[in-house]
C-alpha cells in the first residue's frame, strides 16, 4: 500500500461538476492499494497518516499531526500509485489491486478513518475525478505500508 500525502490549506474533489468531498486545512491523501493489502494494513496506513507530523508548531518546526491542528483528511483512491515505471515508457498497472476488491477495501478504510477522526471526506472510487488542492509548503510525502 502506498499513499501520497499533501499538506493542504484546502482541497476538493469534483465528479460530474459536483463537489463530492472537500476539506479546509489538512491532508489530501492519494491511496494506492496492492493485491496483498488487507484491512489491517489499511488501518495501519490511516493511523500513520493521522499521526504523521507535517504541521508547524509554534517554533515553526514540523511537530504536529492533522488531529492536533483539527484539520481535515481527504482520501482519494489512486491505483496509478501502484504502477511499475522502471521499464519502458508506459506504466504497468499490474501491481494494483483488482477494482472490485479495491473498492471494498477502500470503503473499509474510509469507515476506519471516520472512526478515528471526525473530519474525513473522500473522492468517488472509480470515477473520473477533478481534484483541486492548495498545496501548503509544498509538502508532499510518499508513505508505504507492507
Number of strands: 8
Low-pLDDT residue spans: none
Largest sheet: 6 strands, mixed
State the distance separating the first and last CA atoms. Answer: 6 Å
CATH topology: D-tyrosyl-trna(Tyr) Deacylase, Chain: A
The overall average pLDDT, rounded, is 96
Cα radius of gyration in angstroms: 15 Å
3D structure, described in words:
- This protein is an alpha/beta fold and 146 residues long.
- It has a single domain, classed as D-tyrosyl-tRNA(Tyr) deacylase (D-tyrosyl-trna(Tyr) Deacylase, Chain: A, 3-Layer(bba) Sandwich), CATH 3.50.80.10.
- 21% of the residues lie in helices and 38% in strands.
- It has 2 helices and 8 strands, in the order E-E-E-H-E-E-E-H-E-E.
- Strands 1, 2, 3, 6, 7 and 8 form a 6-stranded mixed sheet that branches. It has a two-stranded antiparallel ribbon with strand order 4-5.
- The chain is globular and about 45 Å long.
- The protein starts with a strand and ends with a strand.
In short:
Helix content is 21%, strand content 38%.
Topology:
Layout: E1 2-15, E2 18-23, E3 26-32, H1 39-51, E4 55-56, E5 62-64, E6 72-77, H2 99-116, E7 120-122, E8 130-144
Parallel strand pairs: 3-6, 6-7
Antiparallel strand pairs: 1-2, 1-3, 1-8, 4-5
Descriptive tags:
single chain; 146 residues; alpha/beta; D-tyrosyl-trna(Tyr) Deacylase, Chain: A; two-stranded antiparallel sheet; 38% strand
Amino acid at each position: 500500500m502506498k499513499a501520497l500525502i499533501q499538506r493542504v490549506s484546502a482541497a476538493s474533489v469534483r465528479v460530474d461538476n459536483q463537489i463530492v468531498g472537500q476539506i479546509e486545512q489538512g491532508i489530501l491523501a492519494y491511496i494506492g492499494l496492492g493485491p496483498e493489502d488487507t484491512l489491517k494494513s489499511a488501518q495501519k496506513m490511516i493511523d500513520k497518516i493521522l499521526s504523521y507530523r507535517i504541521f508547524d508548531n509554534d517554533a515553526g518546526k514540523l511537530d504536529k499531526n492533522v488531529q492536533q491542528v483539527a484539520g481535515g483528511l481527504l482520501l482519494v483512491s489512486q491505483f496509478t500509485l501502484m504502477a511499475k515505471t522502471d521499464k519502458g515508457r508506459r506504466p504497468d498497472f499490474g501491481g494494483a489491486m483488482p477494482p472490485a476488491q479495491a473498492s471494498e477495501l477502500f470503503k473499509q478504510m474510509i469507515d476506519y478513518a471516520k472512526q478515528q477522526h471526525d473530519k474525513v471526506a473522500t473522492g468517488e472510487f472509480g470515477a473520473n475525478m477533478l481534484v483541486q488542492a492548495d498545496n501548503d509548503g509544498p509538502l508532499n510525502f510518499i508513505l508505504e505500508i507492507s
